[in-house]
Design a protein that fits this description.
Blueprint lengths: L2 H13 L3 H28 L1 H8 L2 H16 L3 H16 L8 H11 L5 H16 L5 H15 L4 H16 L1
């Protein structure tokens, strides 16, 4: 199953995990789901590159990124995990513009303290972000590496060791 197909499945999940969350993210998640479904149909018919190119349009970016950022802002680990997974797939599909990268790093920095699964998702997303956006330099790269350093100091062994490995990988990249 492709990343685009996973996104088509994940956005409705983001829209409906609970009543309190749905009133904040629900509508945007459903709109994003419809945008993704139409791109998925085009991808099936014309190939993945067309779908990726059409996902990069300004209107689609707004529809796709808004519920992801809203989901990351909610203090619910399930929603944050779905949002970060969706964000990682959008980054892999190159459906995220360079101008949004600072907001992504800031959002991940804010969501870091939400249990064991969230920091691991953040580390996965950081690797995807840095490898797909080689133009990340200076202060922004410093913030991303600082996030890895913070997670390396975590008391949870799996998070700490994964952060150390991620940091080595990013420095070697």
């Amino acid at each position: 199953m492709s990343s685009l197909a996973f996104l088509v499945i994940e956005f409705p999940l983001l829209a409906s995990p609970g009543e309190n969350i749905q009133k904040y993210v629900g509508y945007d998640g459903k709109c994003s789901s419809h945008v993704l479904a139409s791109h998925y149909v085009h991808a099936k018919a014309a190939g993945k590159s067309l779908a990726t190119a059409s996902l990069a349009s300004a209107h689609s970016q707004d529809d796709l990124l808004r519920p992801v950022f809203m989901g990351c802002a909610i203090k619910n680990a399930k929603v944050v995990a779905i949002s970060l997974g969706s964000l990682q797939r959008l980054i892999a599909l190159k459906a995220v513009p360079q101008s949004v990268v600072p907001l992504i790093v800031s959002t991940m920095n804010d969501a870091v303290s939400q249990g064991v699964g969230i920091p691991l998702r953040i580390l996965q997303t950081l690797v995807s972000l840095i490898t797909n956006f080689p133009s990340i330099h200076e202060e922004l790269l410093g913030e991303a590496l600082l996030l890895c350093f913070k997670l390396q100091d975590c008391r949870i062994a799996v998070v700490s060791s994964t952060a150390a490995a991620t940091l080595r990988q990013l420095v070697m990249f």
